[in-house]
């Protein structure tokens, strides 16, 4: 079904299915948010009741979904002309812009209010700020204005561990800020590796992504520079005593491998070789982040279980 006007959208009967509304939540992004938030919750020495912890994580997940729905509502015009996003629920016409907006705002209000009532209002305020930052600051402003959109906008995706920490402790800890830093510095090389291959898409949509504004060569250099900072940042939880030597070794080795992949991206001159190198870095970067946060989750879960049985 083709994209219809907003006026026509308001008049027709909705053809959306539950699957379409679920797609608005950006479930793959949501899974990463939940995972990193869980790490932020478990890395703290003070632990919340399991039920309250689960509800807090659910609120953070719903808040992330609200951000995704609001993003798809506002970006329907550019999503419609990009091959990667043209089949999303709003540009394809399965969900109307009004439905996406109402869905996103409802989820946002529900998640923030519930987190405030169940946990505390610091965590709720941080969640509200995260949704606002992604939906307004990044989506409505940065994304269409500056090639640094991913760098600055990455703060929204890096905040879930901080929100989860606040839900558990009522404060913002150094450990949660370190997790924030890992995700924040990881985001540019991860996303730019994808953006290089999608430069034509972004060009048609008029989005000033780094490869379109500064060129592919400059972007590949930026990927390397950020990777050189990302690798030692990933080891910080061990250096600061927030994770075990096992984590430290895994973070160091995987970080070194990420630098190796970034060097391959930087050195590639043949378009086919560069495309393959970028795809390799993009896919591996996802595994890298899941590995680091997975070790933190496993280590702290085991520690909790041992304390319970001691």
Shape: flat
Q: Residue ranges: pLDDT <50 for 5 or more in a row?
A: 1-11
Beta-strand proportion: under 5%
By secondary-structure content and strand pairing, the structural class works out as mainly alpha
Quickly name the level 1 CATH class of the largest domain. Answer: Mainly Alpha
- The percent range for helix content is over 70%
Number of strands: 0
What is the number of domains? 2
> What profile does the largest beta sheet have?
none
| Tally of alpha and pi helices | 15
CATH architecture of the largest domain: Orthogonal Bundle
Mean pLDDT: 92
Distance between the termini: 60 Å
**Estimated radius of gyration:** 20 Å
CATH third-level topology of the largest domain? Tetracycline Repressor, domain 2
CATH superfamily of the largest domain: UbiA prenyltransferase
Q: Order of SSEs, N→C?
A: HHHHHHHHHHHHHHH
How would you describe what is shown here?
The chain is an all-alpha fold. The chain contains 15 helices and no strands. The N and C termini lie far apart (60 Å). The longest helix has 39 residues, at 271-309. The model is unreliable at 1-11 (pLDDT under 50). Helix 7 runs antiparallel to helix 9 (160-169) and helix 10 (174-197) packs antiparallel against helix 13 (216-239). It folds into two domains: 16-172, UbiA prenyltransferase (Tetracycline Repressor, domain 2, Orthogonal Bundle), CATH 1.10.357; 178-310.
